[in-house]
Amino acid sequence: MNVTELHKLFLQFPEISTDTRKITPNCIFFALKGSNFNGNKFAEEALKEGASYAIVDEVDYQTSEKTILVDNVLETLQELATFHRNYSKTRVISLTGSNGKTTTKELINLVLSKKYKTIATKGNLNNHIGVPLTLLSIKEDTELAIVEMGANHQGEIAFLSGLAQPDFGYITNFGKAHLEGFGGVEGVIKGKSELFTYLIENDKRIFLNADDAIQKEKLATYIKKFGFSQTDSVYYQIELLSASPFVQIKFEDLVVNTNLIGAYNFHNCCAAILMGKYFNVPPNEIKVALEFYNPDNNRSQLMKKNGHEIILDAYNANPTSMMAALENLSLIESSQKTLFLGDMFELGETANEEHQSIADYAQKLGFKDVYLVGENFFKVNTTFQKFKSFEKLKSYLVDTNLPKSTMLIKGSRGMALERILELL
Fold it and tell me: Which CATH class is domain 3-70?
């Protein structure tokens, strides 16, 4: 079955599943493979659970007319997604970057949905499987699709851009994330810039943070760009009024009071404002959308528990986002501050250096009650308390009555530091 025939089938049954635990009636099941599983083995089960067809790539599992044999299930899923993206005529906005992708995507979607029929990447399903699934969620009436693209090595953004074929693009920033896969900061810049390369080569529109020196330099001679700035009057003006603790913004004589913690979220809001402006969303509707947004999923959530005011930012961490979180906490007025900082992953040979830098920076900012958690932080030279594992920290907290404080909890996803909440 070629992609045109498969797409006709997809139009009849426009729901996709890759997990037999999440089968919806009449969906098409794609039997993907991983290092520890073979989806072909579950094709028959998917059909019994209500799938209309199952796409397999091993002949032994082509057991009925409802199992369709292809050369490679993943490549077929990707090819179908790009075919559907072009069939739909929906305009696609792609974004990538080291930090803030998911929050920015959510903000952009809220703003643009004030005027348009939109779809956006669910959660952070932003890889070689997630991007195709997002494209396949485009409906007949979808006008704009916001597609988040993640990467941990060079060439990945170029590949995802080829799948999504965006009409517009935005890069949040270039930070110290996935240094191991990218081969250092210069590798990060090169890898993330693959989105710019695609857009420039195809004469597409680029949204620009003109206060980011790297972005500004890379796009200095490119004509089809639309940017925001606090300082350069050539670009659309957006002003940060405050971030203590919530981000307050001014644009076009409107003041926006967000529910987002930290100045590092300012540019995420700016991207949404800029795109709202470009797509002619009324300014007051942009304001309403931004003020409606509440962060979740452990991303810069502000909560209170047993007398503690907690900034829970335990979804992920890298040196750039960690330093931004420390800077933000230093600006918040509080007589007592407590920090729980967990290991940052995927830093490769720079891991020791980067963890030491974070500990040194926390000390430089004057923090005293700092708890460092994880094997990397355990190696740093510091006067702060260190715990080689979460279990070691847990044993300590069970017997310790922490003073009421403003608390930051931040670490990479694998550290799962949100578990601290259960111990307070």
Answer: alpha beta
